[in-house]
Each structure stands twice: as C-alpha cells, then as structure tokens.
Design goal:
- The protein is mainly beta.
- It has 4 helices and 26 strands.
- Strands 1-24-23-22 form a 4-stranded antiparallel sheet, with no helix packed on it. Strands 2-3-4-5 form a 4-stranded antiparallel sheet, with no helix packed on it.
- The longest helix is centred in the middle third of the chain and has 9 residues.
Length: about 375
Amino acid sequence: MFHVPFAAALPLVIVSTFVHALPMESDFRDVSNNPTLNTAVPGLVGCAVPDGRYLFWNGNTVLLQRSPGSGIFDAVATGYAGDPGFVILSPGGDYVLMGQGFGDGTNANLYQFDFNNPQDFSPGDEIVVPNHFAGAFLSTTLVAFDRGDFGSPAEIIVLDLSAELDPFTRSTGSPRAVTVMQRPQSPARDTIITKPASSFSASISVDGSTFYVADSGNGQYKSFAVADIVNAFNTSGTVAWASGTDIGTPFQYPLGGVSGVTAGGNLVMAGFGSIVEVNPGTGAIITTFDPAGTGPFYGMVFNDVTEDFIAIEFPASFGDPLTYHATFAGIASLPVGEEWVLTMLFTALSVATVCFVFRRPNAG
C-alpha cells in the first residue's frame, strides 16, 4: 500500500465557515487533465468527508484530496476492485461504504473504508451483497439499495449491516455473514419498494427524515418518509410506489436521480442534458447547469460540506474517456512547481494504467 500522509479532520468551527450556496455555471471548467481524474477506469465515484475534502474511488484505488479545494489527490489505498457504483459517508462521518455495483451479475462486494486509517484491501474485508446501482444510509446500520435484475423492474431493498459494520466483531476476526440478504428466499423482507414496469435504477439520497428515489425509466421522482421504509423493513412489509409524494411531473428533470441535498433542502439531480437544483416542495427548477455546453449525460459527486460538486461528463461512445468539470474552489489548478508522473501498472484481467500523485521533493 502507498500510505501518503494527509491532514487530519479539521475542527467543526472551520467547517462551519464554508458558504452554503451552489456555484454558478460559469464557475466550472474542464479539469480532465488532472492526473487523479484521468486514471478513472472504468469510472469515478466519490463523496465529501466531514472536513470538505473529496474522496474518490476509481474501481481500484481510493484517492483523498489533500485539503479542501486542492488539486492534489493522494492515493491512500488500493486493491478495492470492481465496477464503482457508489461511495457514501457513514452517519457518524468516520468511514465510507463503497459499492461494487454490478459485481458478478448477482452479487457484488461492499467495502467499508476508514479514511482516517486507510488500508489496502485484504481478502475477507468485503461484504457480499446483491448487485446494485446506488446506496444510501437510512440509519447507522440500515442501508438502502436501488437495484434491479435484467428484465425485471428496479427495486429498493434494505440491508441490515449491524453485524458486518460492528468494529468489535471485525477486529476480533469473528466469522460474519457475508450474504446480508439473499434473494428470492425472503422477498417480503428484502424488497421494500417495487417500482413500476419498465423502471430503471437511479441515484438515491436521504435528507433527515426523507428518502428520495427516482425511476429513470418512467421519468418519476418521489419522496418517502424514512420511518415508513424502516417500518416496512422491520415488519417484513412493503411500501407501495404509488404512496410516495411526487416531485414535479414525469420527465421534467434529468433522470440520473438525486445526487445530493443542499443546506436549504433543495435537491441536486444529474442526467441527460444538465444538472439541476430543484425545490422538492414546489417542483420548481431553481438553477440549471450545463458545464460542457453541449447537453451530454452527466453524473456528479456532490460535496454537501462546501455545496460544490464535480460534474462528470460521459462520452458519446462507450469506452471513451470521461470529462470532468469543477470549480476552482472544488479542485484548484495544479500548483506551480508540481510535476505529475505515472508510476504503477496494475494487471487485473486486463492491463490498466493507474496514475499516482507524488510531489517532487524540491517543490516546497
């Protein structure tokens, strides 16, 4: 493992000085030449840690921003293989969960990663769960997945990870159940919400007592009470899709799902054509972003500490490089005197080049 020292979490008083307002579209510029970002194969997912730094996972390496707004990302751990589906911060802010996405088509790995004490992956660190598209914490131990099987409607399932996330159990090396829930042996307990026919998965988000979910196939956004989701899980029940509160009208917004919630309670959504900020109560679009100016399909990594985000532009042809747009406040330009080098080649089924970031010794 390449352990690169990084700053400890900043005090809360410093975090509170961030200005909570989304940037303007004109603030964004293409940062795809940043060596950290252009190594993302097959993609890049991430989140913000409590002091406002970005944490990224590219399907092998975990990268942590050196300081909030820095253009330098340190490779803090490696070996976390897979199709990067999502990264979410724990409710306590002390670790992240990284979801492997499609996995083997039935099951996928879920990785618990302590960014304050980063370690390379070791066999046995993984938690085996159903394949998935997106995830969100409902509580300290309950995690919701938006997932689906080929030919079937997408669904929301809830997993109880209390045993798998318990530090005492993990630290003593005691056996743990790696299959959190197995389908279809307990479908009533597993599937909490079944979406309509022709539905597809999208990003999901939780804001306090509200759970936000989208059906990208039918163009719908809905909200549900977290308490109702948790109660359905506890009672082996289900929540009807129709019982959710509609947000806007079908196909009014980009269909990538809710990627974040601002301090003011507005939703940030990405997908085909743009990224939008939406008032969930009125359905009104507050702001529209198209950093590329060409209306491509966007993914995004939302920073709920600084209320900034990284816009990820997907190429028209599969396999072409991704393009990244960020503000200067989110990812600064490379400092004068820095040199960036490619240092390692990794082989895993196919050969992929992974770029690590090092600082030249005499750069100051």
